[in-house]
Amino acid sequence: MSGRARVKARGIARSPSATEVGRTQAAPLPTSVDLSNNEASSSNGFLGTSRISTNDKYGISSGDAGSTSMERGVKNKQDFMDLSICTREKLAHVRDCKTGSSGIPVKLVTNLFNLDFPQDWQLYQYHVTYVPDLASRRLRIALLYSHSELSNKAKAFDGAILFLSQKLEEKVTELSSETQRGETIKMTITLKRELPSSSPVCIQVFNIIFRKILKKLSMYQIGRNFYNPSEPVEIPQHKLSLWPGFAISVSYFESKLLFSADVSYKVLRNETVLEFMTALCRRTGLTCFTQTCEKQLIGLIVLTRYNNRTYSIDDIDWSVKPTHTFQKRDGTEITYVDYYKQQYDITVSDLNQPMLVSLLKRKRNDNSEARLAHLIPELCFLTGLTDQATSDFQLMKAVAEKTRLPPSGRQQRLARLVDNIQRNTNARFELETWGLHFGSQISLTGRVVPSEKILMQDHICQPVSAADWSKDVRTCKILNARSLNTWLILCSDRTEYVAESFLNCLRRVAGSMGFNVDYPKIIKVQENPAAFVRAVQQYVDPDVQLVMCILPSNQKTYYDSIKKYLSSDCPVPSQCVLARTLNKQGMMMSIATKIAMQMTCKLGGELWAVEIPLKSLMVVGIDVCKDALSKDVMVVGCVASVNPGITRWFSRCILQRTMTDVADCLKVFMTGALNKWYKYNHDLPARIVVYRAGVGDGQLKTLVEYEVPQLLSSVAESSSNTSSRLSVIVVRKKCMPRFFTEMNRTVQNPPIGTVVDSEATRNEWYDFYLISQVACRGTVSPTYYNVIYDDNGLKPDHMQRLTFKLCHLYYNWPGIVSVPAPCQYAHKLTFLVAQSIHKEPSLELANHLFYL
Amino acid sequence: SSVVDGNFEEVPRETAIQFKPPLYRQRYQFVKNLVDQHEPKKVADLGCGDTSLLRLLKVNPCIELLVGVDINEDKLRWRGDSLAPFMGDFLKPRDLNLTIILYHGSVVERDSRLLGFDLITCIELIEHLDSGDLARFPEVVFGYLSPSMIVISTPNSEFNPLFPSVTLRDSDHKFEWTRMEFQTWALYVANRYDYSVEFTGVGEPPAGAENVGYCTQIGIFQKNGGRATEACVSEQHDQHVYKAVFTTSYPSLQQERFFKLVLVNEVSQQVESLRVSHLPRRKEQDGEQGDKPKDIGGSKAPVPCFGPVFTEVEKAKIENSPKPFCVGDKFFVPLQRLLAYPRLNRLCANEEMMRSVIADSIPLSSDGSAVVTDLCNYFDEQFEF
């Protein structure tokens, strides 16, 4: 197959619309404004080529293939689409007031700023037509901009729609410009609408204005964020540059328009694609080079040296060389080498390199076939991190160390940005001509909800810190453990000794927590993944309760092949441990404790509980992510509690291709979960609270219109008389606002349990922020909750506290986690399936936390 | 010479004559070729319009100061941003510094910041000057600014009859000259200010009409006695009448921060490639261990081999330098070895310099003579299959 044909085939298979959800259902806004690429950058702007996602764990943007891929314009529209879904008005119990009242008030500073403008501020939307008509957008813009009538006015223009902050004298203004040929072009500027500042169109224009302003501060737009490449942070040992920058946006919060800014870093790799390929070729040798190279590179985002654009690598064409010719737009043929020399004065030094193929985005309203661009590896820089790099602990640690900012550092950066905007004459000029003023930083009052007690088997413990109660419960017995009698340890000759000493330690700590571990059968295996799988196949019989594998290296194939076999082909709980981990000096006890806890959970044990005042409550967690191998497959993980104490869990993981299929499989799952609940409790739960994670921008409508009804119908169908009451809450770990407390004239992270349900929230939603994690050296990110459906009618206070309680129940960590436990379990399950198993795990394991 | 005018002139709807490439591009390419040939350091474009020519010239490695002057401030502001460095310029910096400044002002006003230039271009400018300004123009540009070289282009009116119904090519043109008119003016000016001048042009006339000459006529003025301006610049009184509307500086290897970035990267890459070729690996590869990175791949390969290719001299230099070595699980590459590679040698003259620049970014051996790294790292495991 030719490169071109292949990329087409791939293009279809990987077409974003196949996986992007909510896109087809999306009704366009009344006026779609896409000035994102207007006058400021018409030839070498970014033309929406970026596939950018944010690695929220480290607060870094990394170009990442698996993530959203759409034009900025579209993406903005999707955000605004979410805002048009007004769910709160349907929830009678919070229509008047959605704020809670319990807890201790705490003063908080935010990263939100007032944006001041005159009371009667309006935006005037004009339509511009040209006679004779001009096809070139650039020419249309140039003609309008060079006309003296408009020269001193604040304006935003995309070639057809013109926005002005000052009204023109006449409703219809006729201007004419003469060209060099003496051709007179008539421009008719007609007033279409007068928009109040609250209009969504205005908010889009405000965002455009701020994008222009940040460009004037010598910042560069990549994706939706702005970066400053002249002050890079270098990590030479990993060949990375981090560009500091900001994610900014202007939007309506509870009652007013606010500007928000958060610090962001862009990861760039200090190597060209050619250098990367050369190094890779040295590593892999030739036999599997092309294959490995494609696997590593396809989907990555590159930055070209000779313009400011980013491209995604959709294919590699090994048959095309820089010495080959291509057809220019004017029809003439030229070699790539000559083209780059003529156009950019760049000499391509390696004439043997293959070509990267990028599928160019179609222009707006253009239904023609997508164009391909051939890029020269030597002239492309890699951005973002590969999956492999993100799995490199050392690398990620180095990145985190460089990018982690304490609240005070973050506050300083924000202050400097605001200061720069106000000092830079060009930036200030832009703001002022629009009639805008930068206002003060928003302060608000949050509440710290009471801390939770941890219930152990015969002890109630009030942890010193909710962040980590491992010390507090060291001497306590766990709630319920099953005895481990028949099990296997697989290890290599080299690791046998360490396995033995670990086993002793494990049995000791397990005993003290009330978990009986008998002596296992130890099997020695050769050091290769196939040998491990063969041994598993050979020795696992129906009596085996658990298989432990001491892995000689963290090569992914070991883990993946073992997990795949034991999660679906032959369902038995398994525990993989890196031999290296067991060699850590002085850590044996704590490692053994952690592993013992995981093992007991995998066997169906329960570790601890918190007090749940609601007596018949089922909590559900749902997460969705893309499969690592086939990016058009979505992995949907669902987890539901099956006892009133919320200590036992039922799970399913289903692979799907479209968003509507996701909703359908939720129904299948809910029916199964309710059956389980009935089996254990001889009744249905009175209340169900669903925490839904993995929701992308613009998907809210699909959730409200499709998923919620599916969940409701599965609940209704499960019972002939009264059915359970349902709440559905969208959980987002990534959100713009940050909160700081002011203490001793410096800012710090707010305490665990801080709830914010005013000012930084949205008027049209029943939403709140909850801080349920600690960040020792960095800035804590709040988790954002949006209750989109609620017939439980719980008071906001109770909903917030229930959510907080659930953050204490994740058994893989003896401390609070950033999202409710069901969400974290669902995430862990989807991650295992998406990364390692790639198919549905056996239902025989559904009642165990086998995915920990 | 703006986008607007340019597009209309070059892609006329009704005219029979079409230039390929478009005429404005031919004019810019003409200037660019001249720059390639003469390698001026300081270049100014008077009447730069939407800065298209400046954008073409900024990629030239020899230019260190690039200035545009125009009376239309809006146009300068509108397209000015596009002269800022690309993001890639921060990852692969230029060798030499480059500053680009756009001034709002008139070419018949004196501004001392334009003194001492190597090249000043006036592309399709003079025909926009009224008679008073045209009279003052030589005195300012030739007499006061007095650069080493001046390029002036203007329409050749003898060509106009080939266009349908055209008297002047632009409504703002105050005049359009025949070749004789232009050359008379040019020779007079050259003589008065001690320049020599050559005439040429772009836009070949169509077959059968060769006698009308080029569509655009060009005069290249060179100052007699070469570059004598530098000395007198400082003596001139500072005179700032232009308003700077846009200024940008490019990252370059002359700046310590970027020099370090590039050097550290090149060193890490070279060390990494040497390290990988020292790794214990499968049998088939063993023969290729060692110091010949370009050999890896082989010629009978299904995929082309790529990566650096060295000349015989370079190869010999590399072979004769101290070899990398292992001690335990550590891998050492002598700095002398690194200096033997052309890409590093180009950046760094000696070991001392290399050591002082990379010392706080890359671990060195205790005596500082070699880069030291772990022989095996995380990624190696990922590639065993």
UniProtKB/TrEMBL annotation, chain A:
**Biased segments, Basic residues type:** 1-11
Q: Which family does it belong to?
A: Belongs to the argonaute family. Piwi subfamily.
Q: What keywords are annotated for this sequence in UniProt? A: Cytoplasm, Developmental protein, Differentiation, Meiosis, RNA-binding, RNA-mediated gene silencing, Spermatogenesis, Translation regulation
Organism annotation: Macaca mulatta (Rhesus macaque)
What the entry lists under PROSITE patterns is as follows: PAZ, PIWI
* Protein name, as recorded: Piwi like RNA-mediated silencing 4
Q: One of this protein's GO BP terms? A: regulation of translation
Q: What is its main location?
A: cytoplasm
- Provide the PAZ domain boundaries: 272-384
InterPro entries in the record: PAZ_dom, PAZ_dom_sf, Piwi, RNaseH-like_sf, RNaseH_sf
Q: Name one Pfam family in it.
A: Piwi_N
- The region called Disordered is annotated at 1-48
Q: Where in the cell is it found?
A: Cytoplasm
The UniProt regions of compositional bias labelled Polar residues, in chain numbering, are 33-48
List residues of the Piwi domain.
546-838
Automatic annotation (TrEMBL), chain B:
Sequence ranges of Basic and acidic residues compositional bias: 282-297
A single Gene Ontology MF term assigned here is:
small RNA 2'-O-methyltransferase activity
Q: What class of enzyme is it?
A: transferase
Q: What are the alphabetically sorted keywords of the record?
A: Magnesium, Metal-binding, Methyltransferase, RNA-binding, RNA-mediated gene silencing, S-adenosyl-L-methionine, Transferase
| GO BP terms, alphabetized | piRNA processing; RNA methylation; siRNA processing
| EC number(s) reported in the record | 2.1.1.386
Reactions catalysed, semicolon-separated, are: small RNA 3'-end nucleotide + S-adenosyl-L-methionine = small RNA 3'-end 2'-O-methylnucleotide + S-adenosyl-L-homocysteine + H(+)
Query: Which Gene Ontology terms of cellular component type are present?
Result: cytoplasm; nucleus
Q: Which Pfam families match?
A: Methyltransf_23
What InterPro entries does the entry give? Answer: Hen1, SAM-dependent_MTases_sf
Q: Which cofactor does it need?
A: Mg(2+)
Region (Disordered), start-end ranges: 275-301
- Give the highest taxon in the source lineage: Eukaryota
The record's family statement is: Belongs to the methyltransferase superfamily. HEN1 family.
Q: What does this protein do?
A: Methyltransferase that adds a 2'-O-methyl group at the 3'-end of piRNAs, a class of 24 to 30 nucleotide RNAs that are generated by a Dicer-independent mechanism and are primarily derived from transposons and other repeated sequence elements. This probably protects the 3'-end of piRNAs from uridylation activity and subsequent degradation. Stabilization of piRNAs is essential for gametogenesis.
Q: What is this protein called?
A: Small RNA 2'-O-methyltransferase
Source organism of this protein record: Macaca fascicularis
Taxonomic lineage from the root: Eukaryota, Metazoa, Chordata, Craniata, Vertebrata
Report which gene this protein is encoded by. Answer: HENMT1
